[in-house]
Each structure stands twice: as C-alpha cells, then as structure tokens.
C-alpha cells in the first residue's frame, strides 16, 4: 500500500478567559478521504512577565461542526439536544511552552473543529493601559496519513485479500448508494500462513468525536463472520479495517463480501413538484387550464400512492431549501405545510445542511399534529431527526438510531399535539426527518388511519435571537461563520435562558437610576462655575452631564433602557465630555491669560476628539491631556509664585478647604475607576466615580477674578423689559 502524509497548519491565536462562546478560539481543518491516521499537534505558550501564572487550557474537539461546550455549567434552552464534547486539558505551569499530541485512527473525512479557551473570566473591568494582561497563545497543526490506493469493495463481488501482519491492518472501502436500507458484510474463507485458527477483528466505519459509533466484530475460528448494518450513511464511502489478532509473523488470507438491501421510495412525480413550485412562487390562476390540470394530476397521484403504499418502504415529501441570510435557512414543503403520516411506511423529509456553512447555527424542527385528522385516540406520531441516513424502522425499534448515528426522537399525539427539537451546531451533512404513525395495540389497528402533521423546519443563527437578555453575534474564523449569544443582566446559558444569576427588574431599574441620576452631582459644579463667571467650563460640564446621563440610560443590559440616539454616538459624546471636562478644569486652575486659555481649550478639544476616534478606551486618551494640563498648571503656578515671591495659591484656606479635598476626591475617583470596577459592582462603583469627579470639580475650580462683581441676583428691575445695570464710571476731582 502507498501511504501519503500531509501537513496542515493554522496561525496561532491569543486565548481569552471564558465568559461566552465568542471567547473560545476556533480552528477548522478538513480531513481528506481515505485517511487512516490523524495526529494533532497542539502548542500552548505564555508570556514571560511576572503577571503570567500557572494556567489550564481546555481544548474541545468535534467532527462536522463547532463543539457545543458549557464551561460555566449553565442551562441550555428547553428542547435543545446537548451531547458533551470531547475535551482535554493542557497545563502551563513552570514551562513556558507545552506541546501535546492527539491521535485519531481512521477518522471520518470532512470538517473537524477545535475550540480552545482559558478558565472562567473573573469579571473585572480592566482599563486599557493600566495593566498588562499575560498573553496565552495556542496553535493547532494537523498531520494526516492517507492511503493513496485503498481497495474498493464492490457490492455482491467477493474480494480476496491478505493481512500481512497484525502491525499492518487491511483497509478497504465501499460506496453506500442512496436508498440503502441495510448492509450485510461477510468475512469468509479465512486461512492463516501457519494453518492455525483465524483470529480477526473487523471495524466498520470511521471515528467521529465527541461520539463514535464504529461497529466492531471479532471473528475466531474458520467459520464465516458477518455483520449487519441498518440504515448505513447514504452516498458516502464506508471504511472497513480488518486486523489480524494472530502471531506477529503470520499472514492471514480472507475473502470479503458486502451486499445492500434496497429501499424503494414512493413520492409524488417530478412534474407535480415542478407545478407546485410554480404555484408557490406565482400562485395559480383561477379557472386556468394549468390549475385544473394540476388538480386532476394531484388527485390521480394521490390515488396511485394509496394503492401502492404497501410496496414502498418510505414516502418522500419534496422540500425546498430557501436561503435567507448568513446561517439562516428555511425549509418549505412544496405540496402543503402538513404532511400525511401513516403506519405502513415512514414519511421522509430531506433537510439539506451540507454546504459547509450551515453548521454554525441552530436547526429547529417543530411538529404540530392536526387532532381532527387522527381517528384513533391512542395513536402517536413518532418522529426522528438523524444525519447521513434516515431511520426506516420506527415501527419496530423506536430507538431513533442508524448505523453510525444516534438520532433525536420526537413524538406528538392527541394529548400532546406539539413538539420541538433544537439541534445546536448541526454537523455538516444531509439531515432527515422520519415520521410514522404508531398504535399501542399493534400496527394492524393503524392500517387505515392517517395523520396530518404540520412541519416547521429552519436554521437560525441563534435560537429565539438570544431572547430579551442576549445579543446574537456573528463570529468569524477565516472564511467560516458561526453565531453565539452574549448574555446581559446576569442571564446565562447557550441562548440566555438561564436565570440562576439574573438581575430582577427592580435591580435593573436601581442600576439605571444610580448610573443616570449620579450625573446630577454635576449641578453643584455647574452652579459654582456660573457663579464665578466660568461660563465655558459650565457649558462643558452641562454637556458631560447630559450625554453621560443618556449614555448610561442606553447602555443598560436589561429592560430599563432608553436611547435618545445611536448608542455609538452617545458613547463617543460621553467619553469626549469626560476628558474635555478634566482638560478645561485643570487649565482653569492654572490661571493663564484668557486668550491663551481659550486657545488651549479649543486646540485640546480637537486633539482629544481625534484621539478618541482612534482608540476610545485607551488610558492615554485621558491621562495624556491630564498630564499635559498639569504641566501647564504647575508651570503657571511656579511663574505666579516667582513673580509674587511667595507660594501660589497664597491662601492656606484655599489649600485646606478646596485644593486638598478636591485632589483627594480626584485620586479616590481614579482608583475606583481603574482598580475596583467589576461586571457585578459596575452600577454602583461607576456611580461613585460620577459623584467623586463632579464633587472634585466643584472644589478645584478657582475663585472668580477680583475685578469682577458677583451676579446681582437680588437687584430690582429698573425697567419693564430688561435688567439694566449702570456700568458708567464717574470721575471725581479731589481738591
């Protein structure tokens, strides 16, 4: 045999602490056909700084679709199917780098996915630039060993082969045709080179993670050995591996034979399907010949199906796949939304999910039974959703399993007429929905009965659009797109349906009120600024108070939300007002000349607006203007002190009762903002930040100029329509 090795690599990704699926880093690999060995090389590394500690990385594997993971232990939505993912842990302790190998023999051909993440996020809100997080990197590479000339076993044709030694198993493959109801594999005429009893092991199928359904049979002696498969995967190559369990140097000669049991499908004619499609798109014309012809054909076809029903092993129902958007598909039945279901043969619907871009969403199948269509009160419509091949024996086993796949069961009856199934991240394949009528006293009771079941099937990025407390986000890894839910207000789970840690409506209202009304503490600062004739500064504080109030009213995660304009605009204006408020306050304290102060006001505001557009959350967007303004203030104070030959400000009362309290409040506010905020305490720590900053501004504003008189609020009106003030200066001669 000729083996060919191939190597596939993807760029490393920086890992994140886990809080939702978007934090998991996804890798996608395509395993070629005839692969007999798959080896993953997993490389994890970390930085060398003191902030880097021991860390455990969790790596998940899945065939056909991204892994469905639940590191936080939250609840999944009702009716969702969840099968635990296969995962391993990689520990980074004293070593800076860790290399791990994962081997898979006879892997299934197609897409394989790897997802890696760090442990649960601590929930602390870190200001960009104040701390340097440790970088944890992860890279996955794939080696495959592929058999270039794998023998092909033809159905009904015996093929002699020789297993050279136990170390070199024999690999063959056979193509499973469509509508294959069963497969029979037989191993016979076993002869060893040492003329001893044969000991062989036969493995049918490939490994798929997280669950593998390989069929294994051990053959001993010289008797024939056989294995039967029900519902093998349609239109796929099936790998067969034969291993010798004998002596190390003994070869074994065997003869293999495979045969299929065909399933004869019954369905409406292609002409009827074409006519129904035209009618569903344009609608039939009343009284037209085409409409009358279709009606006549439908009646005749229905009569034909009833008469030949016993000769069919399944009834096909035509389904149209309608692509709506990215990871969004709707399946529409051509003839009618409801399908007839009987007890003689299962009704089959094909749900095509084999484009390679459909596995990143959720497949939703909903059944609704028409109670008036069922004559038997105890009858039940049993359904099964499976991949690769349909379940064709619902009336016999009812276990909803095929040869290499465990399906998902559903059932509706007169007592429970509705049923729903949600398949999270369905694997790339052809999916089938099988329905059949089952009677508790035997199938003879149901021969003449027929049920009408309305089927709704669609693929959606996020089930129920993540609900009212979640946001559906479309994620991308290279050209592959998949979706995930980011939950808010303490809600969790795959679709944000877990309310274990959810905030109550009262807590949400309290958070909104604290974050918005705390901005009213700017009113004393505005009043002080107006009283001291700092009208430009008062305007900036008013701007900050307004946009901070409505930004936090729009930023809330729950139901207490009010957005007066676009969220991004409110956020930008809030950040701009906050930084400009600090800028103008420090410049006002410097007591430079008015013309220079206003020039710095305008120039600084323009530069701050530019820097916020480049990086809105960077710490230097706030620290840079603050430090530059402090340099100007210190230089101005030194100049005034040297000019007056004493400390500036000269009044000890100014230092004790205004400057020191204002500086203290400002430092406490910065400490709370930078080091104490978390996702859980954000609503009150950030409210404290609002109060402290606003109060510090009121303390730090300098007194008004001595030559300016205070506002004459108590002055009486001297005229009817305006407040008059005599500013004329009288000059008197002193004699």
TrEMBL record:
Bridged cysteine pairs (disulfide): 462-472, 487-496
GO CC terms, sorted: plasma membrane
Pfam families reported in the protein's UniProt record: DUF3522
Q: TM spans, by residue?
A: 510-534, 595-614, 620-639, 655-676, 682-701
Where does this one sit in the cell?
Cell membrane
Membrane topology type: Multi-pass membrane protein
Family that this chain belongs to: Belongs to the TMEM8 family.
Q: Which organism is it from?
A: Oceanites oceanicus (Wilson's storm petrel)
- Organism lineage: Eukaryota, Metazoa, Chordata, Craniata, Vertebrata
- According to UniProt, the name of this protein is TMM8A factor
Principal place of residence: membrane
Keywords attached to this entry: Cell membrane, Disulfide bond, EGF-like domain, Membrane, Transmembrane, Transmembrane helix
Q: Which residues form the EGF-like domain?
A: 458-497
């Amino acid at each position: 045999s000729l083996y060919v090795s191939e190597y596939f690599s993807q760029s490393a990704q920086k890992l994140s602490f886990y809080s939702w699926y978007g934090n998991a880093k996804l890798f996608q690999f395509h395993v070629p056909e005839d692969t007999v060995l798959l080896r993953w090389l997993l490389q994890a590394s970390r930085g060398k700084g003191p902030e880097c500690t021991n860390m455990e990385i969790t790596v998940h594997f899945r065939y056909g679709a991204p892994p469905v993971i639940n590191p936080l232990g939250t609840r999944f939505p009702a009716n969702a199917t969840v099968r635990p993912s296969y995962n391993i842990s990689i520990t980074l302790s004293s070593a800076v780098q860790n290399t791990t190998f994962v081997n898979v023999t006879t892997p299934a051909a197609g897409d394989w996915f790897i997802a890696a993440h760090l442990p649960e996020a601590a929930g602390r809100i870190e200001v960009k630039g104040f701390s340097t997080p440790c970088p944890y990197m992860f890279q996955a590479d794939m080696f495959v060993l592929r058999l270039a000339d794998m023998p092909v076993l033809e159905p009904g044709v015996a093929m002699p082969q020789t297993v050279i030694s136990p170390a070199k198993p024999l690999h063959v493959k056979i193509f499973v045709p469509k509508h294959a109801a069963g497969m029979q594999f037989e191993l016979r005429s076993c002869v060893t080179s040492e003329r001893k009893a044969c000991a062989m092991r036969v493995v049918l199928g490939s490994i798929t993670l997280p669950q593998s359904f390989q069929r294994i049979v051990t053959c001993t002696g010289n008797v024939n050995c056989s294995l039967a498969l029900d519902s093998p995967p349609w239109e796929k190559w099936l790998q067969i591996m034969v291993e010798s369990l004998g002596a190390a140097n003994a070869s074994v000669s065997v003869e293999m034979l495979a045969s299929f049991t065909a399933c004869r499908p019954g369905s409406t004619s292609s002409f009827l399907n074409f006519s129904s499609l035209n009618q569903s798109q344009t609608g039939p014309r009343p009284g037209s010949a085409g409409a009358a012809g279709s009606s006549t054909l439908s009646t005749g076809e229905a009569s034909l199906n009833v008469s030949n029903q016993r000769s069919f092993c399944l009834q096909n129902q035509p389904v149209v796949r309608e692509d709506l958007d990215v990871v969004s598909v709707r399946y529409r039945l051509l003839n009618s939304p409801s399908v007839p279901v009987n007890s003689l043969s299962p009704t089959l619907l094909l749900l095509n999910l084999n484009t390679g871009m459909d596995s990143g969403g959720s497949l939703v199948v909903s059944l609704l039974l028409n109670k008036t269509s069922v004559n038997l009160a105890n009858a039940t419509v049993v359904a099964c959703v499976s991949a690769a091949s349909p379940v064709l024996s619902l009336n016999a086993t009812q276990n909803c399993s095929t040869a290499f796949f465990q399906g998902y069961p559903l059932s509706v009856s007169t007592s429970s007429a509705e049923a729903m199934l949600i398949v999270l991240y369905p694997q790339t394949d052809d999916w089938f929905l099988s329905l059949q009528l089952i009677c508790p006293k035997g199938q003879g009771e149901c021969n003449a009965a027929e049920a009408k079941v309305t089927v709704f099937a669609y693929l959606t990025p996020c089930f129920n659009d993540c609900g009212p407390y979640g946001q559906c986000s479309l994620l991308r890894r290279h050209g592959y797109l998949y979706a995930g839910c980011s939950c808010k207000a303490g809600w969790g789970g795959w679709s944000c349906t877990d309310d274990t840690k959810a905030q109550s409506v009262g807590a949400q209202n309290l958070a909104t009120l604290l974050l918005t009304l705390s901005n009213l503490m700017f009113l004393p600062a505005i009043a002080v600024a107006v009283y001291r004739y700092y009208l430009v500064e008062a305007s900036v504080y008013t701007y900050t108070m307004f946009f901070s109030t409505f930004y936090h009213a729009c930023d809330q995660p729950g139901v207490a939300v009010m957005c007066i304009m676009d969220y991004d605009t409110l956020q930008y204006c809030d950040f701009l007002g906050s930084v400009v408020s600090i800028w103008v306050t420090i410049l006002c304290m410097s007591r430079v000349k008015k013309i220079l102060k206003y020039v710095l006001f305008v120039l600084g505001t323009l530069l701050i607006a530019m820097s916020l557009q480049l990086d809105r959350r960077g710490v230097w967007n706030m620290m840079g203007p603050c430090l530059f303004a402090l340099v100007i203030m210190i230089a101005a104070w030194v100049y005034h002190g040297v000019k007056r030959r004493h400390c500036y400000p000269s009044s000890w009362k100014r230092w004790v009762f205004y400057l020191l309290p204002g500086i203290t409040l400002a430092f406490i506010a910065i400490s709370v903002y930078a080091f104490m905020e978390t996702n859980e305490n954000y609503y009150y720590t950030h409210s404290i930040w609002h109060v402290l900053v606003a109060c510090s501004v009121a303390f730090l504003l300098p007194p008004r100029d001595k030559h300016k008189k205070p506002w004459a609020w108590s002055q009486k009106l001297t005229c009817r329509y305006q407040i008059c003030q005599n500013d004329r200066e009288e000059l008197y001669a002193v004699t």
